[in-house]
Amino acid sequence: xxxxxxxxxxxxxxxxxxxxxxxxxxxxxxxxxxxxxxxxxxxxxxxxxxxxxxxxxxxxxxxxxxxxxxxxxxxxxxxxxxxxxxxxxxxxxxxxxxxxxxxxxxxxxxxxxxxxxxxxxxxxxxxxxxxxxxxxxxxxxxxxxxxxxxxxxxxxxxxxxxxxxxxxxxxxxxxxxxxxxxxxxxxxxxxxxxxxxxxxxxxxxxxxxxxxxxxxxxxxxxxxxxxxxxxxxxxxxxxxxxxxxxxxxxxxxxxxxxxxxxxxxxxxxxxxxxxxxxxxxxxxxxxxxxxxxxxxxxxxxxxxxxxxxxxxxxxxxxxxxxxxxxxxxxxxxxxxxxxxxxxxxxxxxxxxxxxxxxxxxxxxxxxxxxxxxxxxxxxxxxxxxxxxxxxxxxxxxxxxxxxxxxxxxxxxxxxxxxxxxxxxxxxxxxxxxxxxxxxxxxxxxxxxxxxxxxxxxxxxxxxxxxxxxxxxxxxxxxxxxxxxxxxxxxxxxxxxxxxxxxxxxxxxxxxxxxxxxxxxxxxxxxxxxxxxxxxxxxxxxxxxxxxxxxxxxxxxxxxxxxxxxxxxxxxxxxxxxxxxxxxxxxxxxxxxxxxxxxxxxxxxxxxxxxxxxxxxxxxxxxxxxxxxxxxxxxxxxxxxxxxxxxxxxxxxxxxxxxxxxxxxxxxxxxxxxxxxxxxxxxxxxxxxxxxxxxxxxxxxxxxxxxxxxxxxxxxxxxxxxxxxxxxxxxxxxxxxxxxxxxxxx
Length: 745
Hints:
Blueprint: H1 2-60, H2 72-114, E1 145-148, E2 154-156, H3 164-173, E3 180-182, E4 189-191, H4 194-204, H5 246-261, H6 287-290, H7 321-329, H8 356-369, H9 382-385, E5 402-407, E6 413-418, E7 424-429, E8 433-438, E9 443-449, E10 454-459, E11 468-472, E12 475-479, H10 486-496, E13 512-515, H11 519-523, E14 525-530, E15 537-540, E16 546-550, E17 560-564, E18 569-571, E19 583-586, E20 592-596, E21 600-605, E22 610-616, E23 622-627, E24 633-638, E25 643-647, E26 656-658, E27 665-670, E28 676-681, E29 685-692, E30 702-710, E31 720-725, E32 732-736, E33 740-744
Antiparallel strand pairs: 1-2, 3-4, 5-33, 6-7, 7-8, 8-9, 10-11, 11-12, 12-14, 13-14, 15-16, 16-17, 17-18, 19-20, 20-21, 21-22, 23-24, 24-25, 25-26, 27-28, 28-29, 29-30, 31-32, 32-33
Helix pairs in contact: 1-2
């Protein structure tokens, strides 16, 4: 009741406002008509005056005037007559204006009488200008008119040629855009007044339209709270309310038949309002970019429930005690079913599913995270994806079995080196000794006690001399073991006994060259090069006259020294510290010098004395380095289990990264003659790989792992510490933390 009274009051207010607006419009029209009538009347009077003036002029100049012989009295009389005439004319004009105004008022009164006060008003608030009634205006959506007036003529829609851009500009520029609404009955735009806007705001806030309405007024109780004894009506329901209507059935069948025959076409869906309102902005664009969005796939459907999800499944689908215990022990991800199948006698006894919300949420997550895009499946043979590598049998010879074990050291054997002739093997250990072995018989021919842990040994690669460089603590010893023939021993003595030059060279003040005497000389130690810091590695030049030593130190640029044995002089090639140096090596052919730091390998030109190339190993800490006999390829081992192969003609980044070891790679080596290289690691294994380098620059190197050699025992978490190949045979030597040296052939 309250709502109906509120609605009626709102309707009355809107009727009053509409009547006020119509009266205001009528007044404006009446004022305009009055102004037009007054203007027409004045123009007519002016024309009359002009005619009167012309008549008076004719009378003045018609020759009927007095000749001027009258007296002054006659002149005064004439003036009085003229004044009287003017007054009479003014009075006549005023009377005529009053008559016009009275006639206009009479006309207005007659028009008001003729006008119907309720011409645009009705009891049900329908706009009488459009007589279509209370129907959905979408029915006229596809027609040029929007309804019919009282005379039965079509009311055409206003021309609306605005697109989205014009609508946006109107929104930005028109200050009344926000209060402009479209009248669906007439299709015109209506600007709401402040009172109407306030009314809409109140209704949107859920308040009453009338400001003065009291929503908390006492309720009028039309019905009592007492339950009556007799009902209002107890008439039994009709029989027709339980039986389908035959008339309606007949009408529906006729309509269905007409639709099937095409006589009646069903109404188009009113929600499909895309026609005419929107247009494709990218219609002229290339369709290749849009094709990606058409590859969309619908969401996958939920699998249909099976027997185990039934409320009364067969007994074989129910869990036994063992299956129930196993299901409870399993992880939720590994379970076959997310629930335990149960049996109920009837559907009424089935309780609510406790994981229903979780299951729906997981389903939503699956739909949200599912990459629904059609993948172009390419039919590829899986065997074609595997690179076609030659069989290891076709790549022989390479070492396969352990042949000899050289025992005698009591500490870690950190370094080994093979003589250029391939007959002798030298090894240095933490027990302070350097041992010389005969390779074929594994017999130790000579042991030299140097008095400290040996970090590195290197045999002179020149076959015309027989010298061995040993690094221990802060000294480098040059040994002449006298294991070769007499001619080689004499040439070695000649090289060591050359006179020292008097020219001081940079680095000479830091390095002390001295000859040995007494017991050291008897053991074969000929020269002692004293360094300022601990020496970690020694490396010979191919010609056998130059020797490089490495002293890793973060704080100094004095990390690498190059010594010339024949002239007994040393020099520091670097003035700046470029990182912690790990290993150095000479190029086998060209005057290049390789320096491996923790992260990179720098290649220097010794002739031009500048940096030629910098190789990025992509590893955390480089441990060892080896240069290919051809000089165009370098391999680096690192403590993060990687082996990097660099092609110097290809790139400064690794051509291939091998991750075959499980622990830190300690040593890498190339074979001088065969296409073989090897790596040794702390996992106790040596991996031999076949690496063929082609003369054709367009053909990449062929790298194939062929054999994993094992034999060393891991001691103190250290495995194989050094590895080197035989100079002429496809054999490999390895030294480990178990104080043994092993030969694999």
